[in-house]
Amino acid sequence: MRVRRALFLGLFLLFSLAMTFVLGEWYVRTQGGRDADGTFVFRGRPIRPYGLPVHKARGIVDQYLSSSTSFLIYDPDLGWRHRPNARTADQLHRTNAAGLRADREYSAAMKPGLFRVSMFGDSFVLGSDVDQPDAPGAQLEKLLKLRGLDAEVLNFGVGGYGFDQAWLHYRGDGPHYETSVIVQGLQFENIGRNVTLFRIVAVPGTVIPFSKPRYVLRNGGMELVNQPAVPPEQVPAVLAHFREWPLAKYEASYAESYRRHWYTPSLLVSTLVELWNARKGAQSANASALYDVDGEGMSITVKLLEGWRDEVTRAGKPFVLIYLPRAESISAGMTGRPDPWQPHLDRLHGFTIVDPTPRMVRYAKVHGMTALMPGHYSAAGYRIVAETLADALAPLAMEQRNGPRYRPGSKSSIGLPSGSSN
Fold first, then answer.
1. pLDDT at residue 413 is higher than 70
2. Burial class, 98, CB count within 10 angstroms (exposed 0-12 / middle 13-18 / buried 19+)
3. SS3 165
């Protein structure tokens, strides 16, 4: 009797689980749908494995080719750059004739007594989502002037850039302007960008249709591939035959986001896996192999930054990294936990790193995370970045104006606050 009852309960449990699974599968399928490229989308969220965004790329490329006002334009050496004398549709971002985020032009040479900062990096350096005066470069310039300096800050930040593009941007455009110090943004999500070729493949929600060059580690050095970058009019065709493209093996995000798994036929399981992974953040320290501390992306980052630092310091100028903490780093600080990106920071030896995290944590505790970082930083968040940089750079400016020049490799000459170097 007991055996029959246990068998009945077991069969009933299996039947209940099967019905629950079937109902869940039905629910997910009715609440979602596939886009033109075959990617299943559940309540606005793309579910892996993605379909290569051929149709989406064609639409974005066609729009770009028919426009003369797009904020970003194709660049064969960088992938993309800002259009000169352009404005975004919301009027928040404006560029000068050189494509820098600015409302004025800059001379190539510095006048006597001028302290000029050249900032390179991604959208966090650019100052995305805030008006021109609230961008980090504009706020830094104002704060340095309040300290009695004749200061000028050139904002070379470009949205979507990896460390590789920032380095190439510096080498191509940086030498056009004399400068006192080079500042590079240290935003660790960018290490994943170092190992991608198409932003639209790595980030399906992007509106950037261009490809980009990338470095490949080889025989102890680095080799640049996909330069010149694929012209935009050829992008849809390359994506349509992506598996046959000779450089496809260098698109690291393809293997991760487009690979089919044993559970792929079930949209319920695929959606649950996607939602579970999303809890860690799509681009967090532990989200994927793209961000491994010992992975290819981070190794390229270290090699790029070391070469950049050495080149700048040989020219007798300081090279400063401004750490741009992500939401998970600030949240960790608010609860007394270590920064999840600390192992990545520990790989950067011999760099001057300015860290605004403690100030951001204090601000977020009082005003809330959304007030600091609604997406990118808020105007207040960028001000904290600018304040931290101003505190670090003002003593250097005074020293350059009144005393000995910067000595390459000497952190003490910059006068950074205790704990801000790594």
1. no
2. middle
3. helix
